[in-house]
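Hi support team,

I submitted a single chain yesterday and got back a structure, but I'm not sure I'm reading the token output correctly. Could someone confirm the output below corresponds to the sequence I sent? I've pasted both exactly as they appear in my results page.

Thanks,
R.
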Amino acid sequence: MAYYSKCIAIAIQHLSRFKPERDHPEQFLETVSASLQAASPQKQAFILELLSGCLEYHKLLDIVVDAFYARDGRLCLWADYSLFEVTCYLATFQLDELGFPLFCDIMRSLPMDKMCKFLRFFFNPVNLCSWIKDEWSLIHEATYVKENWLEPLMRWQPKVQELISQLEGASAHQIPPFKCKSKVTKPKEFRLTAPRPRSIPMPEPVPTMAMMKAVPRSTYQVPKQQQQLEMIRRDNRRRAEELLLKANVEELRCAMPRPRLEKPAEDPKKQLQPQLLSRIRKTPKLTFYRQDNVPVKLNTAAILREGALYQQQVEQELQRVDRLVDGAGDFSEFLEWQKRMQAQDREEQLAAEECRRLQGKLSHQEAILARHRLAQENKQKADQKKEETAELMLQRAQRHLREDRSCRELVEQVMEAQRNVKVAQMKLLQDRRETVQEVMEQSRELLQRTAEAAREEQQRRWVLTSQLRALEKQPTRKGKLVDLTQIPGYGLEGEMSVVELRERLALLKESQRREEEEKRDQIIQGKRAKSQELRNTVEQIALCRAAMGRTAALRWEEKKARATAPRPLCKDDRVLELRRRVQERAAERCRQEAQLRVAAPRAARRKAGALAEAQHWQDLQRSRERKLLALQRGPSTPGLAGPVRGLEAA
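Hi R., thanks for writing in. Yes, this is the structure output for that exact sequence:
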């Protein structure tokens, strides 16, 4: 038993060092075999067989061990992972070969509580026939798994259950290890030196006040940076006004009639200039809106898109002016009708807003009334729930009594079955000992045969390795003379020497370099032309944005004036009906609140009476406690004897 426990311990130690992502199984087994040269052949063969089997079937073993840690082995240490893998391998693949008695001895040599827990989990019929079968069938064929692994495990399951019960009994009768009493720490006194006498401090010098400096002249002057910022601000404002003036001139130029071709006159811009300047000067003072955010830098696509949009707007405006010059009608009637319809829409919108506001107030009043009704319903439901809870508690107490009675009967039956099992266990133990001795002799013979076969295989490999090394040491001819100017002469079309091939490649690279430079120059010229076009487009976009910003500011002022104007009273039937319903709900809510306020003082008076009564009894209890304390201390004067006797009588 100790022999197998040592072998398993060595196998677990080597298996825990194996890393699948770093080590190769064959190299790992060769390293382990080299480290076990000092051990006996039987021991070496058993350990190598365990390691090779665990590495070969590590996927199947990992499935079982991981599930054990996730379900029943949450309190087990991860350092025992290799122990559970070896146990699973022995139970699955070596149980028929070792024999059940030898397997029982091996399990008894390992930690009993851990083996008991793992064997109970692994040999559970529910686990074997459900998820273990499904997971193993994903790796190997289902028929092979069922015939070669699961059916032998199910056949050994009754005997393994007996082994588990024996391990549980043995672990329960084990004597717990003796805990030695820890030493008590004894405190020691500190070895403190005598403090030095305090020295007399030196007197501190009297501080002298430093001379105050005069206030500099720059304190009462404006800083240069602020002056520069003010100059920059004035320049920016002047430039903005100039740009806005140019935009207004361009906008008004489109609305003026064109000169006829029959009577050529002077430049139209020069004729319109005095009139436009007089009209622009009469305009009120403009309001400038500062942007909160810095303007976003546009890319090429955005600039071209916006430039095309503004160009399209300008063309549409020019077409409209041409139509007006040719005698087309204006939109005054349409604009008047549009204003009337907009006013009607605003009135309907105001009525709809008032309806929504009144509906909100009505829903608020109805919600308050519903809350009062819900409180009354909840009170009724709470009383009904209390009655149901009392009935359920009575039923629960009766059920507990019946369960206790059935548990007592079950315990008596189990005790009787345990007394009958002990006799059968002793007889079975004797049979197992005889079987173990036979299996031990057979295993020794098998181990000797495997050791001899391994020795012969190692000798054959050594001979092959020596032959390979002798072949590698034979001298070989290195290097070969090559003439680069010689033509190979294979008879191919266009055959040439290496030197000629290099010259042609150099000429081809030079021609490619010249073509790349020409293409690069063309690309640079195209980029310059495109950048100039983009700059022109950006300038046009800036002018259009300035004009649109002014019109947007005027529209904003008009909208703000309309918003600040007082709203007319709404006389819609829906609004009047909603107002009436809101007043009715408010009156009903006031009546309910008045009833609640009438009922509240009565409850408050009852609560106050109960509090006064409780305070009276507390004061009476305190007075009795004070008299009892005085009685325990004893009367200090003869006059106190009478009250004490009265208290005792009370």
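A quick pointer for reading it: Residues 504-565 form one domain. Let us know if anything else looks off.

Best,
Support desk
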